[in-house]
Design a protein that fits this description.
Length: about 400
């Protein structure tokens, strides 16, 4: 993550850049890339020449609160999400002492690594059953073993799940029902994600651009297959993991698959934006249908491998990596902390549909709090409903999903 902000001078290197995903595979998703070898950007005090739109957006301490008034679309009065409440109302949430969730079941896509692993570990500590969705059975097994060593008595299962293979998703959910014995799902966390660094543009076997196809379409289709399980829970939740990378992008409805304009960082940011449009639209539809299911958004801020505690063999951090990553800890955080807003969106009874949860400090690090949702996602005057509805229709077409996704 690059750009300039009102923060102490700090060089962000390939290892310390936010949104790194894997050590050594850094992505500059927000701002400019500077020319220095291995140097992706620099924070400067003052910030009179902000270059990264996303950074300037997350630096605003008090962005305008979204209107609480109802919106009207297609002749139907659709209630908006409640505005984010003041932070002080949420200070009692303790990320290290989570409420118990015995008897509940959560599915975390990409639960075998990164933020998803820590979401799973933290949820497992509440007594809940946690299903790790992973495309690689060996990684899934390794993550389960690690998680059990950290959380004695953890109820954890693995489900083979490849979001880039749309045809496999129904089979995966059938397996969850038949083999894992799932009869309801209290929350699915749409966490898995792929971000490519370089051209050329690549496609999934289904003919979708890889990032749009995996991050958005895969989760869109999965939601439809999981609908009966989510409806069977007392208050099911769909928790979508967005990104500040989405803030600096706009969807091109005529080029959702980035056929004409493929730039890896842009396409990644747009895939995350598509996920957030989906989550906001799902919330509107669930409310209009008076559903018991909620759609909640969360984002991890900036979460680096170099600031993440070791969980061998899932993640191993050497002393050198740890020391090199220390300065970045002033600005961003580890993936364990990146999981906090996501976990809160899953567990907090006060987390309402349509809300966005993120880290407290500049939206980059710290304890979770509700953030204002950008107007372009919710405001009818900003055509939010039109864009979201178009994306929804296009997603149904590409995935073959039922227009109501089985939820509305
Ligand atoms: N890290 C950040 O600073 C940051 C910031 C904003 C948003 N996010 C979001 O947070 C989420 C997690 O990021 P992360 O940093 O933890 O990434 P990560 O460490 O690279 O983990 C990504 C996870 O997604 C899985 N995955 C990728 N493609 C998949 C597919 N086709 N089917 C199933 N699973 C697949 C990966 O599985 P494999 O191990 O098999 O590859 C892995 O478990 C992503 O949605 C990302 O967009 C991250």
């Amino acid at each position: 993550m690059c750009g300039r902000g009102a923060l102490p001078p700090l060089r962000l290197t390939r290892d310390t850049c936010a949104e790194p995903w894997r050590a050594g595979r850094c992505r500059c998703v927000v701002g400019e890339v500077s020319a220095g070898a291995g140097t992706l950007g620099e924070w400067r005090r003052g910030g009179s020449t902000v270059t990264g739109q996303g950074v300037s957006a997350v630096r605003r301490r008090r962005p305008p609160t979204p209107s609480p008034s109802p919106s009207r679309r297609q002749g139907v009065l659709v209630p908006s999400a409640p505005p984010a409440r003041p932070v002080s109302r949420h200070q009692r949430w303790n990320v290290h002492r989570l409420p118990r969730a015995d008897g509940r079941t959560f599915l975390v896509t990409g639960g075998n690594a990164g933020i998803g692993y820590f979401v799973a570990e933290q949820l497992a500590g509440t007594g809940a059953t946690v299903v790790l969705g992973s495309r690689d059975p060996a990684k899934g097994e390794a993550a389960m073993a690690t998680l059990r060593s950290r959380v004695p008595g953890a109820r954890v299962r693995h489900l083979r799940l490849d979001l880039a293979d749309l045809a496999s998703l129904k089979t995966a959910v059938d397996t969850a029902v038949d083999t894992l014995g799932l009869d309801r799902l209290d929350a699915v966390v749409h966490n898995a994600g792929v971000a490519l660094d370089d051209p050329p543009r690549r496609e999934t076997a289904d003919g979708n651009e890889v990032m749009f196809g995996t991050n958005h379409l895969g989760h869109f289709a999965l939601t439809g297959w999981l609908a009966p399980l989510l409806r069977a829970a007392e208050a099911g939740r769909v928790v979508t993991v967005g990104s500040f990378a989405a803030k600096s992008e706009r969807l091109d409805l005529n080029d959702l698959q980035s056929r004409h304009d493929y730039r890896p960082k842009r396409t990644y940011g747009r895939s995350k934006l598509a996920q957030m449009y989906f989550a906001a639209e799902l919330d509107r539809r669930l409310r209009a249908a008076d559903s018991t299911v909620r759609s909640v958004m969360a984002h991890p801020g900036g979460a680096l491998d170099s600031l993440t505690p070791s969980r061998p063999p899932v993640h191993v951090r050497s002393l050198g990596t740890r020391l090199r990553g220390l300065p970045a800890g002033l600005v961003v955080q580890g993936k364990d902390a990146g999981a906090w807003p996501v976990v809160r969106a899953v567990l907090d009874p006060e987390a309402a549909g349509g809300q966005l949860w993120g880290p407290r400090v500049f939206g980059l690090r710290g304890r979770p709090r509700p953030e204002p949702v950008a107007a372009y996602l919710t405001d009818p005057e900003a055509d939010a409903g039109t864009v979201a509805a178009h994306l929804w229709d296009a997603s149904c077409e590409r995935t073959g999903a039922d227009p109501g996704l089985g939820l509305t």
